[in-house]
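Purpose: get a first structural picture of the assembly so the mutagenesis plan has something to point at.
Setup: two entries, given in the order below. No constraints added.
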Amino acid sequence: VSVRVGIDLVDVDQVASAIAVHGDRYLRRVFTDGEISDCGGYAEPRPDRLAARFAAKEAAFKALGAETLPFHEIEVVSAPDGAPLLTLRGGLARHAERLGDPRVSVSLAHEAGLAAAIVAITHTSQGGTR
Amino acid sequence: MTEEIRAVVRDHARLAVDIDTLPDDADLYRAGMTSHASVNVMLALENAFDVEFPDHLLKRSVFESVASIRAAIEQVQAEAAA
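Result (structure tokens, whole complex):
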């Protein structure tokens, strides 16, 4: 079994600013309905929670070694016990499958105006990702 | 078009340096643009040029420089006109 890891850090103020400038279009373009609902909905979007999810998308993208980042193909929502769950869809899911039996884990953190995420993917292939 | 792109980058990329000091092929990520700031740039470009970047263009290399952004917008406009 091999492990690929990705990490990312996001300034929460940048997310708050994007919501202020681009509004719902920013939310719809970057986040899934499940993520938006998990982060306060359209009425009261939480920049800190959204920033952590954006960081998770970037971290997963790095761990996968993918070329493009269709934002909706990575979803991070909270499980009933509060733990974050990352799901890959579409082309990124197929990309991950090429790694061989991929298992994705994600951890999120936000404090002092910054949000961070680490994504680890365990897989069976020893080869490249493309 | 290049000047309009530069105006969007100036307003949304949060560069550590003045965009006017950079050539069109300068790497905007190296100049301080974060991955999240590149999303702000993308949305502002879509507003400015009335286009929508398709998923296959959501890649780091597209937003890497003023020149690469221009090429991508021209591609999107050509695809929309076809």
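Chain B touches chain A at residues 12, 14, 34-37, 39-40, 43-44, 55-59 (CB under 8 Å).
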